[in-house]
Fold these 4 entries.
Entry 1:
Amino acid sequence: VYTFLSFGITEGYILSVMAYDRYVAIRDPLRYSITMTWGICRRLAAGSWLGDFLASSVDTVTTFQLSFCQDNVINHFLCEMPALLHLSCTDTTQAELVMQVLCIFTLLCPITFVILSYAHIIIAVIRIRSAQGRRKAFSTCSSHLLVVTLFCGTVMSLYMKPQSLSSPEYNKIVSVFYVAFTPILNPLMYSFRNKEVKMALRKLLGKPEGA
């Protein structure tokens, strides 16, 4: 449970860091290598992992203070928090409250940071004089924005809704999007934007470079 939570929370933090990275690249591309140094990148990554460690530990400890005295079969394809809360035979109000409070720091805060970053990105793109430059800038951000929407939207619909209003079937369907669907899309959306990957794919399919 802790491992699953930690990787999910870290992805949310990393997506917000990537939004800031794109903002720096578009706002001042000539100074990008000076602003986003390896030291800054390491600190951002370490901060993401530290935040995920704290949030995952609190959520895991809170959940396993509950009593599980009924069926021990989880109606899910993984050990997810809402599925475990449905199994508990004690009052889960406090555990749900802790989970929703943590969602503010692990979901709403990263999403807010992403929105602010993209608001500044839009302002910076509008200031670009050439139409080609604006298209290239928006193209750089489109893949990341789609991943953020799919991942954060589905996670919020599952974790920030009262458990009394959700069903195990709904939870399983929603989980598929951020557990399986989004990770599958990641290499497709990011890698296929790389020129070398595109050229290798064309060679594999036997198409000329201009096709």
Entry 2:
Amino acid sequence: MKSMKNTYLFLFSFLFLMNCASKEEDEVYTPVPYTLEIPSLFASKLIAPVLPVNNPLTEEGVALGKKLFFDKRLSGDHTQSCASCHNPRNSFAENQPFSEGIDGVFGNRNAMPIFNLAWNFDERFAWDGRELSLERQALEPVRNPIEMHSNWKRVAEKLAASPEYPDMFARAFGSSKIDSIGITKAIAQFERTIISGNSKFDRFLRGETSLSSEEQNGFDVFMDEAKGDCFHCHGSNQNPLWTDNKFHNNGLDATFSDLGLGAVTGDPNDNGKFKSPSLRNLRFTAPYMHDGRFTTLEQVINHYSNGLKQSSTIDPLMKKVAQGGVRLSPQEKMDLKAFLLSLSDPEFINNPAFRE
């Protein structure tokens, strides 16, 4: 009888342990939700970011995306990463007109700065709006022959062979499988956390500092429809993004070698239209415009002052194109530059959360 009891006890213990082991194997790690650090001005003046339900922000996903953003194994010859053309020191832009791919070939567009993208509500990315989500935008540079010139199958194989990535993917997405979908989801998560919102002008709006007379006069020029008339496309003190995130023909050319949005939509009325970039961090993002044609802010201001060119798709907001521009005085130009520089955020480009 005692022997039978011992047998039952053994079987019970064995089945209990096997059941526990089975439960442990079935358990999947649950990622920790990531909380965006939203600046107070953004919270008070903008609606909350609309994040994709199939790619929620998590601590593990953001950490994975950051690692991938700086990983040169995404390129064909291990010499370039996303950060090569979107350098944190340049506010995630690049300090030359065109980016050079791994084969020494240059594109024809300036690298756009990457920040505050979580508030890009129309979900059109790139200068010409060809990408309809951050996840999709991250696909193209890896496989583009004039950029990182690799292929996603090869990239996934390289990352899967590494000692750290399979576990990072498992913790972020519940599976150690590595493919282009998971990689671009992680990169997009990291990019949505890249937020700039502590410039001198932000601190002024929060009542923490004062503007110089030049900066205040420059802001007045910026907001005056009879003078700078800049706010329609680039926001105001009521729009801390400092862009409308829309597409405009701002009078750069009379004819177009680059059709911009028109090449994407196929609509001739969109020819020569490009996305309005944010005016934040201009101190760090030269050169300017979609083709990097202007190396200084003075050149940008001179374009709007007396360099506008008429064309069939010129934006109606370029109201003084017939006069060549808004015709600012030398002092107004200097003051406007002072204000624009007050939108730069040195803390942002030195934030360790955004550095390798």
Entry 3:
Amino acid sequence: MTKSKITMQDIADHLQISKNSVSQALSGKGGVSEETRKLITQTADELGYVYTGNRKRSSDPEDMIASTGSIALVATDFAFSLRGFFGEIYLTIEQEAQKRGKKLLIQSISQQMMKDGTLPPFAQQKEVDGILILSHLSTDYMNKLIDTGIPTVLIDHHHPDVQADAILTNNRFSAYRVVKYLHELGHTQIGFVGNTSFSPSYYERLEGFTLAHHELGITLHPKWILSDALEDQEYMEKRMRDLDEQPTAWFCVNDGLGFIVNSIIYNLGFQIPADISIVSFDNGQLSRLATPKTTTMAVDLALFGKTAIRQLFWRMDQPESPYVEILLPTTLIERDSTAVPRD
């Protein structure tokens, strides 16, 4: 086995003891004898176990493992360009890292790097204590980062084939609440706009949208499920003009699509919210620039950053613990784009 692949379980198997004993010994906790602790740390060194975070090898203060003092935040060029959404998450992460005495390294991952499987030097040489992955990278590339053995946490993205902690919006319940809100206003003809193949988050919002229809006894109209939506005015206008009739409300999976749908509805001769209501997602700048301002589901971006840092530091100290997904709540911000439908 290579150095980066050695786990606590490997050490436990080698010594024929429990993994819990290994964890206690390597973290400097009680529960094992000093003789056993020394045997475990010696075996860990011989096998090439990679120590992470600031955990102790033994109870001796001189055996503290020096950390690099840095963590990394990586994302695609596209994600870093979305300053309205990811900018606040990044700033919060930077502030929270500084509070914990860590330097934050920022690395943009290009499409070519993902295609070639080229890792940043700090990942190749294990020069950071932890990695935060912001939004989408390819599944293969994320796994290559994780395979370095550096503790990793995903932000606003997850995938069944990626074994890592993830900080996520509670997409299903949020979309469920949108439909329930519209239903309480009197809407029973509700459409969905989002590209479900682009992001698991958007697919989950469609699941919540569908669940709400089922539980509320509302008929789900397939013609109003625009699950191939693109943030392109011309494309979306053609898709919506092709409909033989409009629903009384549209739920858009982000503010960008909400802004586009708003414009198209006016081009089609309808009024908002007199004829058609709109609810979008994220509470970004476009939801406030639209006329009328768009009702939206607000995501607490600062909470995203704080939770991600807290989870990464926990993971650095508990590398062998089961992976978890943390779902963050949203808040409905009611503005002028929604109203009781006409009779």
Entry 4:
Amino acid sequence: MIVLHPERLLAKNVLCFTTTRYHGASSGAYASLNLATHVADDEAKVERNRASLLAFLEKSDFALNNSTSTIQANAYTGPMKPLHFIAQNHSTVVSPYSESGNYPNPCDAVFAVEARRPLAILTADCLPIMIAHVEGFETAAIHAGYRGLTEGIIQNTIASLKANPNNLSVWIGPSICQKHFEIGEDILYMFAEHNKHVSFNDKTEKFHVNLQGIATDILTGLGVTNIQLSDQCTYCSDDLFSYRQSKHKGHKECGRMASIIMHL
């Protein structure tokens, strides 16, 4: 399995990555490692893809845990808890990790206060925002599209954590870039507080929004200073799923990548 990860570890003993399209069982617009069950893909193939992800996660966890260069061997604190996916719907709802997978519907961010709890969110243009306490066990994963960003999903997540924001390390993973994220005047009002991240394209007569820039401003405004940004655009890369690119190609749906974070 091929994955993308932060340039630097978010924190000692923290595993964090985003999957790509490769080495899965799905085909067509879902080719090949689609990890979402809600996009009309073959359910059996999605289950195979999720099983591959789980196997990779367990293998990566073991390898990272036994690295002498960056990870302390005594970080291993017991068996990994179950991996579940939350019911995302561009809300501002945040939930603690549930070992049973009993999450509210909708739910667009999840956090854990103990080690060995894998957190996962699905994206195909939206921001995967992964958070780790640099000294403790707290971790969080946020699915943030423009609606969640402007309505408070980041603020709600940070407020759910006990850690001081300046002790948090954040990775904003692969997402759509400003060039390809265009909106109409009908929702421009939602970005009134973030207008420095909005530009107008005379040729397309559309507004373009820098979602990573908005997220960074929100995080820094809350006191978070340790922020890494992925330079991978989902629309531009053939390695990643992009909902907007898929629509422009005439497909009704597309697959989703998973972003995972877990303290060992």
